[in-house]
Fold:
Amino acid sequence: MAETAIRSPLHLGDDMAPVRDPYTGETIGSVCVVAADAVGAVMRRAREGSATARRMSRAERARVLDGAARMLEERAESFARLIVGEAGKTIVQARKETARAVNTLRLSAAEARRNAGEVIPFDAYEGSAERQGWFTREPLGVIVAITPYNDPLNLVAHKLGPAVAGGNAVVLKPSELTPLSALRLVDTLVEAGLPEDVVTVVNGGAELGAALVAAREARMVSFTGGFRTGEAIARSAGLKRLAMDLGGNAPVIVLEDADLGAAVEACVSGAFWAAGQNCVGTQRILVAREVYAAFRDAFTARTRRLRAGDPGDELTDVGPMITAEAAAAAKALVDEALAAGAGLLCGNRLDGALYSPTVLEDVPATAAVWRQEVFAPVVVLQPFDTFDEAIERANEIEFSLHAGVFTGRLDRALAAARRLEAGGVMVNDSSDYRFDAMPFGGYKYGSMGREGVRFAYEEMTQPKVVCVNGTSDGS
Ligand code: NAD
Structure:
């Protein structure tokens, strides 16, 4: 499968970089790499693209987005195979990501049609009764979008869809590990009628990303990725709007009255989906002591039944991690926890980029697998004695995205929803449930903005007020 980057008519150098299949190690394509010193040329093209995008009516933007959604749906299997090839997601998971990306584009089209502003009630308070007016939602201009490797299609759709719906131009830098799905998505948008200069894809790594972030022409940096990168971006962006979708370390609480079978099934999926490379993946499971042993035994047995291996195989549950280095780094964190007294219930075997689903207990609260985002197929089980203790332990990490709670009692579910410090609390579900229309983002350290199409669209547009003075009843 040869894929080549062609998404820019600018001549930005002849350097090519290979894209590798994480499972086989084979090169599946190559992309042109843009040097950091070419950012000036990239931004000139983006500014032209911004003028083009601004001229598009809402109907045109919606038609492009709906058209691209339809094409993506028709070509879903080939997109899913591309995700398997470059990201190592299983084919079942890749199909789900593709279906979600179709929805993301459709929701974006709807936003272009619907979310145009509001009437301002000037006569609602004394002093402005002679005025009438409204605010519109205007484009920001050029948006720099930087995306990670783990959802190489849908996370890109979450940038491009709302940005195009809002009438912006985008400079997109996808992960250097998984640029192919992004390129094909942009090709699809162009085929659906998006003018070429509205989205410019540039391939490269941290240096290119940093140069884009620093470019004065950019009005916003919309970033999805890790905390360290987010901090570097925040330090160098200057006076630009920032949207940060960063990492997680999601807790799920299982109360003694929960349906244990359902909790086990959902938490196994939540912990090991996409080989744990999932920002809302379940990392810490807090279980009421009365049911801890039963939960642990069932959870471990179910995990052992997961099939790890070839992500292209319909029966595989857990594919490779993105690189052998990432898998080795995850194992090193687990080994560190084991050396500090943690117990291994299953997993911790390494075979290249394949890292077997790993379940730990008795993990010290100081261990990295408890405190940091592991972003690997690793989950920690932890008993608790009281509801208050469960909430406190769940909340003790300084950053968060999602949390979950399993219980048969409505009062407990609502109390957990109120007290858990998270951008979303899933009741009787694992932390990794996400619907693309809901507001999505971090809750504590690093919480800057929300994705979810309507919310990203609102962050990617700015209100402009029109106020008409001297209105009267016409007599
Ligand atoms: P990463 O931060 O290493 O890289 C993300 C992107 O940033 C890549 O395109 C990379 O090239 C670029 N980059 C790296 N250094 C840069 C710099 N100095 N300036 C500008 N750009 C730079 O993340 P990753 O390893 O690709 O992805 C995993 C991380 O993403 C995890 O922490 C995960 O939780 C997070 N994530 C968050 C969400 C969310 O929506 N909250 C979704 C998926 C992944």
Remarks:
- The longest helix spans residues 91-114.
- The chain has 15 helices and 19 strands.
